Amino acid sequence: MQIDHLFADRVKTLKGSAIREIFKLASQPDMISFTGGLPAPEMFPKKELADIAKDVLLNDGATALQYGITEGYDPLKDIVRKRMEDINVAKEQDHVIIVSGAQQGIDLAAKVFLNEGEGIIVENPSFIGALNSFRAYNAKLYAVDVENDGMNMEQVENLLKNNDTIKLIYTIPTFQNPSGITMSLEKRKQLLEIAKKYDIYIVEDNPYGELRFKGNDIPTIKSMDDTGRVIYVGSFSKILSPGLRLGWVVACPEIIQRIVVVKQVNDVHTNIFAQMIATQYMRKHSIDEHIVKIRALYGKRCGWMLECMDRYLPEFCEYTRPEGGLFIWCTLPGEYDTLAVVKECIKRKVAFVPGNTFMADMEKPSSSFRLNYSTMSEEKIEEGIKALGEVLHGLRA
Ligand SMILES: Cc1ncc(COP(=O)(O)O)c(C=O)c1O
Questions:
Q1: Contact 206 CB / ligand 1 (< 6 Å)
Q2: How far apart are CA 369 and CA 312, in angstroms?
Q3: I need a surface site. Which of 12, 49, 254, 334 has the fewest CB within 10 A?
Q4: Are 338 and 332 in contact (CB under 8 A)?
Q5: Is 204 in the pocket of ligand 1 (CB under 6 A)?
Q6: Are 303 and 332 in contact (CB under 8 A)?
Q7: Is the distance from the beta carbon of residue 355 to the nearest atom of ligand 1 less than 6 Å?
Q8: Which of 35, 80, 99, 103 has most ligand 1 atoms within 8 Å of CB, for mutation?
């Protein structure tokens, strides 16, 4: 069917093919998959949520099945607000709203701020869902390298000096997706200073912040901001369940009011039944104790994957050693196109994601790739990394 000429320009700029094909292959039952950012399904509190779901429907079905308000279900908003106040993310004047996953929070922030052609600074590499959201608004992506301690601040400042259309910086400062890197405290402070100096806003996306299994917490950028220029996005996806599609945004009232208006247009409100389930879960159970268990599992799997990588990968591979989150970022020297490495590994039933997927310029081959460690057993991790090692040794030869 000849229909492409009718599609809007904003969707024509969206790319997705390579990763989708890989995900399709990775979902084959015999594949060892290090692809997605999926939480370990064995950690979902299925029994608890089943009981709560039934209880909610039987006892307050009229609310659960009715329209809700755009800002979110009040009891859930209160719980989230308290949690955000405890880490100084929500200040007295801030507003909190519940959104349909962090993805929606990012998208709404972009929609509120970015006119066509206007600029947003992003980390290179970064989260593909966010990059695609910015692309869909025909925003111009200005990519900044991610170093071992976070974004290269010189590049940020140079971009801002030379482009007065840039309005936003999008960053995942803690256990970044895809690199696993955490921005240092110094750089967080620097970024805030730069944002103030050039009068731009920061979207701080923090779905992994609570998944630290090593080292010490670093304050969020939002917690250090007293000027209202940080839009903080959080998520229940990695600490409870992504299927519930629950996230939140904390920002100054002026921004939240705009976000609420565009959310009304997008989906009226976040699934009220899911919000009630999450609320009851946190009333009846300790989500913090649950998070401790998730952290322990991921810490073990990450440590084991790194051990296997040390053992089986050739010396020329460099990789990050995350202290939390879900990902390890591996880089080969020189000009490899890791898409070829991924294809070769898929033949051996091991899948992961080539680095170009996460770049502002996806067309350019990348010598990096992302490994996820949260869903595979230790046995599968070893088997997969061993196969990857064989492919990489072969490449060098
Ligand atoms: C950095 C980052 N932000 C946002 C999201 C989206 O999360 P949610 O499931 O809450 O929409 C993800 C999902 O993997 C992510 O990695």
A1: no
A2: 16
A3: 334
A4: yes
A5: no
A6: no
A7: no
A8: 103
Whole-number Å distance, alpha carbon 5 to ligand 1 midpoint, is 32
Give the range of the structural domain holding residue 125, as residue numbers without chain letter. Answer: 60-284
* Rg, the chain, Cα only: 21
**pTM of the full predicted structure?**
0.96
Measured in Å, residue 49 CA sits from the centre of ligand 1 at 22
Strand-pairing partners, residue 124, are: 145
Q: How many structural domains is the chain composed of?
A: 2
How many Å lie between the centroid of ligand 1 and the Cα of residue 120?
18
Cβ atoms of 324 and 213 within 8 Å: the answer is yes
Among 261, 284, 307, the domain boundary falls at 284
Q: If the chain, 397 residues long, is cut into consecutive pieces of 10 residues, what is the mean pLDDT of each piece? A: 84 66 80 93 98 98 98 98 98 98 98 97 96 94 97 98 97 98 98 97 98 97 97 98 98 98 97 98 98 98 98 96 98 90 93 94 93 96 97 83
Q: Do 38 and 104 have their domain in common?
A: no
Answer yes or no: do 13 and 79 share one domain. no
191 lies in the same domain as 161: yes
Task: Based on the fold, state whether residues 295 and 249 are members of the same structural domain.
Answer: no
